[in-house]
Amino acid sequence: MATAVLLKQQGNNAFKEGDYKHAEILYTRAITKDPSNTHLYTNRALARIKLHSYHPCIDDCLLALELKADNMKAYHRMAQAQLGLRHPNEALSSALTAYEFCLRDADPSLGIVAALVLEAKKLKWEAREKERLRKRCPLMLELEEALGRAGRKEVEEVRGRIDSGEISALDGEEEVEELERETLGKVEELRSVFAVADPANAKRREVPDYMIDNITFGFMHDPVVTKRGQSYERATIEQHLKTSPTDPLTREPLTVADLRPNYGLKKACEEFLEENGWAVDW
Q1: What's the CA gap between 174 and 164, in Å, rounded?
Q2: Cβ-Cβ contacts under 8 Å for 153 (sequence gap 6 or more)
């Protein structure tokens, strides 16, 4: 009879091969044998993310958190699922919690989790932008949402073919990614047309990633740069260094004396803010 350890390994192998459904089944069998193993729940959660089974994924994460309240992977997976469900507020909260655990434990996943926080924050901002555009440029938003619905329908059809076994999971995911790129391209083209026709109302408001602090994920006003070329907001990196003398992203030794003002980035941020006062709310 297969043990939980063996079933987990078999599940890992199936996951690596792109057979996420079989991996989910194997992790489930492992859980029945060892229901107190938090790794089994977070592994199954990841398989369910790949299967776009977001609600069951969140259930797994909650079960893992009942067993271990500071489980970084559970919060990380839950944030991914919440993003998949287009719930930016919940996703941001989960991702920030995972980020705090990464900082505390010097976890090597910090960079990946930081990117997830930024993605959640962008989605939250995007929701606010949609509401603004709904009032100022309803036709553009209506067309944009129609393109989104058409794209999602095509993606659902591909996933149906995956579920039926008509195509493999790996081939299907490649097709889904291509469809999503095409939809995004159409939306960007639509936005460009409206931005030219009605720049006062239709121009998209976005903050460049390089102007965002990687600790607070807020807009930078007084950036400093490390010897490795990583920039942070002065106040937040100095506060971080009081408790941990390391670069929060690279984990290399870092002191306040190693920081230098990033005059070029500061000027760029000031110029951007002059033209885009709304960025203070980012």
Answers
A1: 17
A2: none
What's the order of all strands across the beta sheet hosting 223-225?
231-233, 223-225, 260-261
Nearest residue to 31 (alpha-carbon basis) of 16, 18, 47: 47
Q: How far apart are the first and last CA of the chain?
A: 55
Q: How many of the other CB atoms lie within 10 Å of CB of 126?
A: 15
The residue to which tokens 């942070």 are assigned: 232
Amino acid identity at 19: D
The tokens for 74 are: 């559970």
Strand 231-233 with 223-225, pairing: antiparallel
Give backbone dihedrals phi and psi of 223, rounded to 5 degrees, phi first: -75, 145
Residue with tokens 């659902």: 156
Matching residue, tokens 């938003």? 141
Other residues' Cβ atoms within 10 Å of the Cβ of residue 219: 19
pLDDT of residue 204: 64
pLDDT digits (tens, 9 = 90+) for 153-175: 999 899 888 888 888 877 888 89
Residues in the chain: 282
pTM of the model: 0.69
List all residues 6 or more positions away from 263 whose beta carbon is below 8 Å from its beta carbon: none
What CA–CA distances, in Å, run from 71 to 60, 100, 273? Answer: 12, 11, 38
Strands (E), the chain: 223-225, 231-233, 260-261
Q: Are 244 and 252 in contact (CB under 8 A)?
A: no
Place of tokens 């076994």: 165
- Angle, helices 72-84 vs 38-50, to 10°: value is 20
Tell me how crowded residue 156 is: count the other CB atoms within 10 A of its CB: 12
d(CA 111, CA 80): 15
